Amino acid sequence: MRKKVKRHMRRVRYVLYKETLLDFREHLWTFLGAFTGIGLIGFLQSKFLDSADNIFLIGSFGASSVLIYGIINSPLAQPRNLVGGHVICALVGVTIHKLVPNELWLAAALSVALSIVLMQITKTLHPPGGATALIANIGTQRIKDLGYLYVLSPVLSGVLILLLVALLFNNMTAHRKYPHRPIWHIRRRRHAH
User: Fold this and answer.
1) What does the alpha-carbon distance between residue 72 and residue 68 come to, in Å, rounded to a whole number?
2) Is the dihedral of CA 86, 112, 42, 31 positive or negative?
3) Rounded to an integer, what distance in angstroms lies between the CA atom of residue 39 and that of residue 41?
């Protein structure tokens, strides 16, 4: 029994050790990509838009950055999911806000739930998209006043900036490759056997 416990303890220590190793090169590229992507969107907002104009930065872009710069091989981080997920969720969020403008709890719940289902159906599941739908309902009055323009900017314009930066930074070294599949925009077909 004692031998068994020792063996399990060795295994636990090994797993904990492996999980806490730092990969400085990986962390550097993650930092550079996220900093550049979010920084570029924020810079454009601060330099080229006055305070009454549209906004470029929304909270869900931070969560997208975790995926597309930090865990680039995740199916949820692929370009189809990034772009499709955000755009679908923005459309759902704005539509629900227009249909149910005075019941925040209902609009918020419907926006997120419908967004998840539509992302599942279209194979574009991207968790930050749920926040994009929610922001269309709980965001500032400036965001709500955008209506369907919210889909184009900040959502689509910001997502395209994040994607371009991800394509650049995630492919600058031989050990990182993004997107995971080179033909990311084509949906896989299931073959019947």
Assistant:
1) 5
2) negative
3) 6
